[in-house]
Amino acid sequence: MRKFDWDDLQAFLAVVRAGRLTVAARKLGVDHSTLSRRIVGLEEAIGATLFDRRAAGYALTAEGERLVPDAEAMENLAIRIRSRQDDAAQGLTGSVRIGTPEAWGTYFLAPELKELSRLHPELEVELVANPRMFSISKREADIAVSMTRPEKGRLIARRLNDYELGIYAAPGYLAEHGDVTGRRQLEQHRWVGYIEDLMWSSELDYLGEISASLVPQIRISNVISQVQAVAAGVGLGVLPCFLARREPGLVRVLPGEISLTRSYWLLTHADARDLVRVQVVADFIVSRLAARGGDFWMDTA
Fold first, then answer.
1. Exposed e or buried b for every residue in 253-270, given b needs 16+ CB within 10 A?
2. Ranges for the HTH lysR-type domain (predicted)?
3. What's the rounded Cα separation, in Å, for the pair 167 and 180?
4. Matching CATH topology for 90-161+263-293 and 162-261?
5. Which of the two residues, 269 and 166, has the higher pLDDT score?
6. What are phi and psi of 157, to 5 degrees?
7. Does 156 have pLDDT greater than 50?
8. SS3 251
């Protein structure tokens, strides 16, 4: 029987997360035949079949499902051991991947990376600003910013800040279709909103919170494009105030009557508490957000 090899466990986790052998091999930087041999070797060492090989990809067997948490625990231990080799006196090294919603990552964090790079010039930072949820447990990111606080999992959640949303329109749209002076008039207007089956968080269901009868005629998958559509006069839209203020000419509709509030949460894995670079970057994000002030996120008009 083949001896157990930690490299085989890494190969196993890569295939679990990618779902396809070729994709996992590309991420690991190895040939797919090499990766296949590692998986076979692990199955021989354990004495169990871990994957069902299907045309659509690799699916975990029951034995494979049982192995995942143990493999991830060993991975976390290996990461902590490597992190202890970081010499703080020599500055932070290595890579930190940050997954964020597109607007938060684009308009807040991206400009702040200049200061982070100045403080830690040897640190490599990967910013993934996409309209989606990021899985910390699957190592999609070392740090994630979410609109919801996770209810389960070995995660550490820190509340970053609240922000306000309101209904906005372009002056040209209102001139053509008439001002909105009351809530009842909202149903008479064209709306810009999210594509329902691409709504990556239930917190994005803004229209349903205002009225169950409001349905967007124009559906867009991300908020940055929604801002541009509303600014072009396509229709009314519920937008974060910190984004709407960046677009000259947008008009707040019923500001004294309709206001929504959402929160951003910073998530890290519980096992990352020993990773110096992850904790330093997380603390940097929190401190920079605090320095910008609460009015950066809340509408003060």
1. bbeeebebebebbbbbbe
2. 4-61
3. 10
4. yes
5. 166
6. -115, 130
7. yes
8. strand
Q: How many CB atoms lie within 10 A of CB 162?
A: 12
- Cα separation, 40 vs 150, in Å, equals 35
Distance between alpha carbon 26 and the CA centroid of its chain, in Å? 23
Backbone angles phi, psi at 87, to 5 degrees: -100, 105
Question: Measured in whole angstroms, how far is the alpha carbon of residue 103 from the centre of its chain?
Answer: 11
Superfamily of domain 90-161+263-293: Periplasmic binding protein-like II (3.40.190.10)
CA 224, CA 243: separation in Å to the nearest integer? 8
18-65 pLDDT, tens per residue?
888 888 888 888 888 888 888 998 888 888 899 998 888 898 999 988
Q: Name the pTM for this structure.
A: 0.69
Which H or E run contains 23? Answer: helix 21-28
The one-letter amino acid at 228: Q
Three-class SS of 81-118: HHHCCCCHHHCCCEEEEEEECHHHHHHHHHHHHHHHHH
Q: Sign of dihedral through CA atoms 84, 89, 92, 94? A: negative
- In this structure, what token pair is assigned to residue 288? 């920079």
